[in-house]
Amino acid sequence: MSLKLNKDQIKRFSRQIILKNIGAIGQKKIIQSKVLIIGMGGLGCPVAEFLTRAGLGTLGIVDYDNVELSNIHRQSLYDYNDINKPKVEAAKKKLNKINSKTKVNCFKIKLNKDNFKKIIKNYDYIVDGSDNFDTKFLINDFSLKYKKNLITGAISKFDGHVFMFNFKNKKNPCLRCFFQEEKITDDILNCEYEGVLGTVAGIIGTIQANEVLKQILNIGKNLSGFILIVNLLDLNFRKVKINKRKKCICK
Predict the structure, then answer these.
(1) For the whole model, what pTM was predicted?
(2) Is the CB of residue 191 less than 8 Å from the CB of residue 39?
(3) Contact 19/27 with Cβ under 8 angstroms?
(4) So what's the pLDDT on residue 105?
(5) What's the Cα-to-Cα distance from 148 to each of 135, 142, 206, rounded to whole Å?
(6) Which is more confidently placed, 1 or 48?
(7) What is the residue extent of each domain of the chain?
(8) Which of 142, 43, 56 minimizes the C-alpha distance to 105?
(9) Could you tell me the CATH superfamily of domain 19-113+123-241?
(10) In this predicted model, which residue has the larger pLDDT, 181 or 88?
């Protein structure tokens, strides 16, 4: 049975529906899509917010942490009253106020091979907003195994990176093809050590949300096989091709 937009949906999403690349058919695709976000921090918050505002049907959010005072300057779904509350629960409460029709599934867990396997199958698109390489590689490997589209983000100081991996195409590279060093420290991803301007998180997270919507709608040019490198201090944007590594697991 085909989905029909009701009057409330037509009015709520009218500014999207009017776009010739979206229309009513595109809006239905957004409503029927399922997206999983790992990490409800500086990146995950704007991704979740803008996908919810766009009318996403089902959103899964994964994070084990509670809200801390130092989070609030860049993690846009939280405020002072959320301190010490689980991030996923505080985020869900805010997202429900934005769009109660988006189903938000909370996972207050430390992601590992066993629990991720049970979750990932239920989602169409995976968004990586994590801040450590162990988690990023775990997300990469499972997205590859289950042939999911993966949108990965990373931020530090005034800089941000966005990757998009289409694992339905065996010719495309993966995250391990880019990070070829044997030992990589998490310091470059950890805001506690390096610091980050709050707006950087918002901009990179919003770009990730934009890439998800483009994938759902199958419109425009995507970042598959590329990395977008953003320097917001000097306002430089570069898109660099990632070559597939010969001995990588994605071969």
Answers:
(1) 0.94
(2) no
(3) no
(4) 98
(5) 16, 8, 20
(6) 48
(7) 19-113+123-241
(8) 56
(9) NAD(P)-binding Rossmann-like Domain (3.40.50.720)
(10) 88
